[in-house]
Amino acid sequence: MQVARAPAGFVGRSLRRVEDPALVTGRGCFTGDLPAARWVRFVRSPLASGRIRAITAPAGVMLVRGADVAALHPIVPMLDRFKYAPIRQPVLAREVVRFVGEPVAAVVADSREAAEDAADAVIVDIEETTPVVDAAAALAAGAAALHPEAPGNVIVDGRIETAGFAVAAAGAIRHVTATVRSSRQNASPLEPRAAHAVWERATGRITLTCATQMPHLMRTAIADVIGMPEARLRVVAPDVGGGFGQKMSLGPEFVLVTWLAHRLRTSVAWTEDRRENLIACFHSRDIAITVDGAFDADGRLVAVAGDVVSNVGAYSCYPTTCGVEPLMAMAELPGPYDVQHYSCRGRGVATNTCPIAPYRGVARPVIAMAMERLMDKAATVFALDPVEIRRRNLIRRFPYVSATGITLDAASHIETMDMAVATADLPALRRLQAAERAKGPHKGRHLGIGIATFAERTGYGTAAFAARGMSVTPGFETVDLVMDPSGFVEARIGASPHGQGLDTTLTQIVADEVGLGPDRIRIVHGDTDRTPYGFGTFASRSLVISGGATLLAARKVGGKLRSMAAHLFEAAPEDVVLADGVARVRGTDREVAIAEVARLAYHQSHRFGTAPPGLQASATYDPPGTFSNACHVAVVAVDVDTGKVTLERLLVAEDAGVLINPMIADGQIHGGVAQGVAGALLEEIVHDAHGNVLTATFADYLLPTARDLPAIDIHHLETVPDSAFTVTGAKGLGEGGAIGMPAAILNAVNDALAPFAVAIDELPATPQRIRAALRAAALVP
Question: Per DSSP, what are the bridge partners of residue 97?
Fold first, then answer.
């Protein structure tokens, strides 16, 4: 690899985001802004488990029950591997309910307020049965099965063991074990879900405007469930106020709103409120991992064994399925560490809780936590510095094929760790920590330092998803790029950004290839009638895959511009340079405006021989996936009297290849780190024994504020990868902040508590958990 040079064009410059002016001046348009003739309010189950006896409404209330939509197909995500049990989720529950908040009916009224009042008047009679709320209870012998298709409540069960694992593990000098758990979270986007469906009188088509990350796949899925021709459904994703994975899964609410618009021949809308979002919208995480590391005498890993149990909730999310958490954890658990002998089991377990869906980082925050806790524990066992034990085990040679067959194309694990350690001045921090500990006694604030290294697979293509056996196999992205006769460019993309700044970064890529300023380029997305079929924006894929397709399409248009200009000048195409809005012959003063060439391409096409008229190109890109990597450092102060954790310093050393827009890259890291802090210290969906959600408002489900976060110190090791895995040289980094920082903070908390010989291995590391651990060790009152 080589270090990137200063930018010569628009790529590499921190241009201001073109998306922001409309948003910050209140000119954005969100689904909830749209007027509708009829409004929907869902009636939701108050119980986690039970049999429906009756659902009744006062006279005059339009009530839709499960029996009314019996002709609709259930939502059935599919895998063809890993003992997957296909679970059928009804649009409205009919006979039984399986989680608090499950939609059992819907009311329709002339206003949102009237619909809410009518829903409050609906009486739901359910005979309660005993729920299973956590994965351990669901796996216990004799536990009630949520679904007949999944005896034992295991919906997916993946296993892997490499040849020679048992011999390697048995021959190890020492075994070190770490068991970690990440509690259930909610993505909590600024905008909850919303849907607005309009029946078009002239055509009979439905236009569904909704808050989604995957408009094309939503169209396919909803048409399948309703049983309507897909061509009669248009899906539009307008401005979307955050998603983080929660808006990439099909909810039954979107299906019912679409069906009602068709049935009532009008416009129908639904907007989720925050309580619904916290209780009944897709949750995340809720995963436990036990990892056993087999080490040789020098502290090097010779084998790793893992066990992953994911509480996936009552149903399987569509399209990724409930296998997304346990199977990703199983496939990528070793992370940046060099280990070829590997065994792991990953299970997805059904419980009477809200279904789980992908959330920023998916399983990787938890597998990073497991491996980084393992490294810190092993450092103690071998009396090594935490940096040194990582140095002995990090992958150094690339490309590297992991024990599970994944190719790490290029990375800089050692270099980013060295950058982080040097920038943080770890020796000085250790001296400060030692001086504070020497004061004794063990009361008040205790300083802790934690590091975490990780590999972040980004830009997953079709091959990566196909390995999971998904019937819906995402991967490729297509871009259609057109320059009109006036010399303006429109790039129509299948990806669907919702806050990432993708409009800006793609504009920069196009600008350099066609020689125009970004102000003459427009990115079109989020409309299935206007854009090529694509899989949306998730999994740190958009800049890698959609950006790659954009670059390839722009190169085609740029190549045609050069050929046409060369024809006009009677020069060789390779001698024509496109820049600053003109096509010029290199080394001469001969030039022509690119806009003039565009006009000729349409209005004087006969001048260019057999070349097809116009300026348009399409390109599809489907790479295998490319790895970013980073090292995070957290410095915390733990008050052992209260259990409070104060963040003193957060540092990120990141290598994400070429940075198309460094300012946007930093913004993505800031947002990811904030969510990582939330998972490490604050956010937790809490259920009681009956499956009720006790954290149903932001008074109980705690989000970080600006006061909770110190300045985030970001350093980039910007390298150009010697890799065919990313045509732009860029790697995804949207999830990295949420992957590495929880592990770094947890290690820092445990480092602060080291004098007390207690361990916190569950997130969030709340004051209550810290105080409970200290009390259990009889170290504090």
Answer: 50
Over the stretch 280-292, which tens digit does the pLDDT of each residue have?
999 999 999 999 9
Q: How far is the CA of 355 from the CAs of 89, 326, 511, in angstroms?
A: 10, 14, 43
d(CA 558, CA 564): 10
Tokens for 19, please give them: 């998306």
Percentages of the chain per state (helix, strand, coil), in multiples of 5? 30, 25, 40
Is the pLDDT at 697 greater than 50? The verdict is: yes
Residues 18-36, mean pLDDT to the nearest whole number:
95
Residue 60: CA count within 13 A, CB half-sphere = 6
Peptide bond into 355 cis (omega under 30): no
Q: Which of 351, 267, 263 is nearest to 39 (CA)?
A: 267
Nearest in space to 605 (alpha carbons), one of 597, 613, 594: 613
Phi, psi of 656 (to 5 degrees): -120, 35
- How confident is the model over 305-324, as a mean pLDDT? 97
The region, left, alpha or beta by phi > 0 then psi within -120 to 50, assigned to residue 474 is beta
Are residues 220 and 319 in contact, defined by beta-carbon separation less than 8 angstroms? no
DSSP string of 21-33?
Answer: HHHHTT---BGGG
CA separation, residue 91 to residues 42, 355, 711 (Å): 11, 14, 45
pLDDT, position 444: 78
Query: 34-129+190-242+247-280 belongs to which homologous superfamily?
Result: Aldehyde oxidase/xanthine dehydrogenase, a/b hammerhead (3.90.1170.50)
Query: Does residue 488 register a pLDDT over 70?
Result: yes
Q: Is the pLDDT of residue 5 over 60?
A: no
Any idea which of 2-11, 367-376, 674-683 has the lowest mean pLDDT? 2-11
Q: Supply φ then ψ for residue 301, to 5 degrees.
A: -70, 130
Residue 3 has pLDDT above 70, yes or no: no
CATH number of 2-21+476-621: 3.30.365.10
- The pLDDT of residue 453 is 98
Spatial CA neighbour of 247 closest among 24, 551, 31, 103:
31
Which positions ≥6 away from 132 have C-beta within 8 Å?
Answer: 49, 138, 143, 144, 146, 153, 351, 352
Reported confidence tier of residue 559, pLDDT bands at 50, 70, 90: very high
Instruction: Name every residue whose Cβ is closer than 8 Å to that of residue 88 and which is 6 or more positions away in sequence.
Output: 74, 75, 76, 149
Q: Do domains 2-21+476-621 and 283-462+624-776 have the same CATH topology?
A: yes
The DSSP string of 567-612 is HHHT--GGGEEEETTEEEETTSS-EEEHHHHHHHHHHSGGGGTTSP
Overall average pLDDT of the 135-146 stretch: 96
Please answer whether residues 157 and 82 qualify as being in contact, where contact means their C-beta atoms are separated by less than 8 angstroms: yes
Model confidence at 367: pLDDT above 70: yes
**Stretch 621-637: mean pLDDT:** 96
Q: Where are the domains positioned within the chain?
A: 2-21+476-621, 34-129+190-242+247-280, 283-462+624-776
**C-alpha R_g of the chain:** 27
Tell me which residue of 448, 360, 431, 396 sits closest to 752, measured CA to CA.
Answer: 448
478, 620 Cβ separation under 8 angstroms:
yes
What's the distance, Cα to Cα, between the start and end of the chain in Å?
Answer: 55
The size of the chain, in residues, is: 781
Q: How confident is the model at residue 6 (pLDDT cuts 50, 70, 90)?
A: low
Q: Name the CATH topology of 283-462+624-776.
A: Aldehyde Oxidoreductase; domain 4 (3.30.365)
Beta bridge partners of 514: none
Confidence check: pLDDT of 1 > 50: no
Largest separation between any pair of C-alpha atoms in the chain: 90
| Cα–Cα nearest to 322, from 131, 134, 158, 193 | 158
